[in-house]
Design a protein that fits this description.
By secondary structure, the chain is of the alpha+beta class. It has six helices and twelve strands. The protein folds into two domains: 93 residues, MutM-like, N-terminal (N-terminal domain of MutM-like DNA repair proteins); 128 residues, Helicase, Ruva Protein, domain 3 (Orthogonal Bundle), CATH 1.10.8.50. The longest helix is centred in the middle third of the chain and has 19 residues.
Amino acid sequence: MLRFDAPMLVGPAPEAGRIIEHAERRGRHLEIEWDDGLVLDTSLRMNGTWHVYRSTDRWRRPFGQMSAAIQVADWTAVCFGAAVVETYRRADQRRHPGMGRLGPDLCRNDTDLGEVVNLLLAYPDTEARVAEVLLDQRVMHGLGNVFRCEVLWSIGLSPFAKIGTLTEHDAIRLANGAATMLRANLRSERPIGEAGGQPMLMVYGRTGQRCTRCSDSIESRRSGGQQRWLYWCNGCQTYLDPRLQRTSEGSMDPHPAAQRWIADLPWNRDAV
């Protein structure tokens, strides 16, 4: 390597003259490892991308969007729009901000989904919301924000359900649904509905529109420590919803719409 640049890098920078030995995709992360054990981890999420240019080529995106650049003889690899750019030492992986190894890759056909089920059922924080656990890269990786919303909708599970309330059957449905959807998406066969012959998302980005399953309205809210947008249908994603369970006892009006309205009152609504 001749030169390394990363304006928002967290961690030590790779040194010029070091040899790049390995590059690997892990879900929405791309990791690049040097011969001294230093690893560059770029979290691409939805908008990040890597480009490779000859030394004489003009970049296709502005310099100001550059997250990292690695220059070798005759070539430059440039990362644009990464959410996080950080380095860690392979020999001390526990210091990685992701707290150790990544969970099973749902995009791989040979992944043992039974391991995913066990990780869901053994999650240490039993009060954590399912929607947040699905973004925990130690449980599974490859899912991302769009498909966590779509998977939860596909099985009718409330995003506010606590992970500790899931049964083994629930965890199996969640793992199988997530893996099936991601692998089909890689083959450009997204099994999440069609509109006019074109693939479409059922809840993500559809705030205020009607649910195609129950005709209720799609809702959205920022959620979790990363404040990612969460989309769900209040009408049919009611399974294990703690808001409804808490307010159903002693309620004066048994109608589901009234139950949801009571559950979303400021003094009843769980903080997100």
